[in-house]
Design a protein that fits this description.
Its cofactor is FAD. The chain is α+β, with helices and mostly antiparallel strands. It has eleven helices and nine strands.
């Protein structure tokens, strides 16, 4: 076993967190890194610039072939790996681009998890093996045009009609929406909020793609429109009512973001370190100046703390004791600090920091979306405030 005492010091692992990982976890991390380097890194800046991901289905199949889709779920063709292994995969995916991690996160932690946790057995058998292999793509419809942080006020409705359900409404900012084969849709019913697995080829279902984004441009984002969509009762999730269902799924996705944000931070930190070592001003490398070293150290300290926090939450999740408030703490802290790291890296690259020849401005712009999706800073702050004071301040 390689330890900090026998290997060369890593300037991006000041705490030697590598020593805490198992051989299997390292193998997962390294395999994901190779996949990203081979299939995505050579193209992602161009995808971002042009705002499209060509051959997204082929990419999804490649991710499925590696076992990355629903990798933390058991059965139905899923890999059943540890929460830490899943987190490390998210870190490496987002070190390439937040849009890539979003594709995997929405597929596995939102759409697949919802079906795996709440769907009927027939629904699981119908969708999960194909989704795990990447042959089918899923999306998750909760956010609406007028209701983001307040999902309890959603307007999408589902009503019984004989043995079927009729769904009407709109969902907004849906990752994978226009390429999805199945949409997990949450709607208000006479029985409370319920979830449905809606095949996207159902009459009345459409998913126009959202254009003109300044963030997550290497990702498919859509609106979902449900205009009298009729589905059989067996597509409804039978045993969950209210917001417990969608919030349980969001908790899974937020955990992955806690790791993923640190991938974007690491990418920017590495670029800034390399750049300042090579770039000369006033006859010296930028890295030789005290103010430059101060920025690099501050970035690295926050990165190290963020990875340590993510690792701690992962071990708690694997032990079955992770709480939603702890996930809120991780998401709140790590995305906020990752964004600050990216912005600081931008200053160290000067004008080159806004060029897509480097990943820094792309990561920073992406994290502006990650900062507010899966729960805004304000909402996660109030979750923790309620835990501390016992007083809910959401209204």
């Amino acid at each position: 076993m390689t330890t900090s005492a026998t290997r060369q010091p890593d300037p991006l692992d000041l705490l030697d967190l590598e020593d805490f990982l198992t051989d299997d976890e390292r193998a997962v991390r390294d395999a994901v890194r190779r996949l990203c380097d081979d299939l995505v890194e050579p193209h992602v800046a161009e995808w971002y610039e042009h705002g499209r991901v060509p051959q997204v289905r082929e990419l999804t199949v490649a991710l499925g072939d590696m076992g990355l889709l629903g990798m933390h779920l058991e059965g139905y063709g899923c890999a059943g790996l540890s929460a830490v292994a899943y987190g490390l995969a998210c870190l490496e995916l987002e070190a390439t681009d937040s849009g890539l991690r979003s594709l995997v996160s929405v597929q596995g932690s939102l759409a697949m998890y919802a079906i795996w946790r709440w769907g009927r057995e027939e629904t699981k058998q119908q969708w999960l093996p194909r989704m795990a292999s990447g042959q089918a793509i899923g999306c998750f419809g909760l956010t609406e045009p007028d209701h983001g942080s307040d999902p309890g006020s959603m307007r999408t409705r589902a009503r019984r009609h004989g043995s079927d359900w009729i769904l009407d409404g709109r969902k907004m900012w849906i990752t994978n929406g226009s390429v999805a084969d199945v949409a997990v849709v949450w709607a208000v019913t006479d029985e409370g909020v319920r979830g449905f697995a809606v095949p996207t080829d159902s009459p009345g279902f459409s998913a126009p793609e959202i254009k003109h984004k300044g963030s997550l441009r290497a990702s498919v984002t859509s609106e979902l429109v449900l205009d009298g969509v009729r589905i059989p009762d067996e597509f409804a999730f039978p045993d969950v009512r209210g917001l417990k269902g969608p919030l349980s799924c969001l908790n899974e996705a937020r955990y992955g973001i806690t790791w993923g944000a640190m991938g974007a931070a690491r990418s920017c930190l590495q670029v800034a370190l390399d750049y300042t070592r090579q770039r000369e001003q006033f006859g010296r490398p930028l890295a030789a100046f005290q103010l430059t070293q101060h920025k690099l150290v501050e970035m690295n300290v926050e990165y190290a703390k963020g990875v340590l926090l993510a690792w701690h939450l992962g071990r708690r999740k694997d032990s079955g004791v992770l709480t939603p408030a702890q996930v809120s703490l991780g998401k709140l802290n790590n995305v906020r600090e990752a964004l600050d790291i990216c912005r600081t890296a931008r200053t160290l690259l000067g004008a080159n920091g806004v060029s897509l020849e480097y990943p820094v401005i792309r990561h920073a712009a992406n994290l502006e979306s990650v900062l507010t999706y899966e729960g805004t800073v304000e909402m996660h702050t109030l979750v923790l405030g309620q835990l501390m004071t016992g007083i809910p301040a959401f209204r």
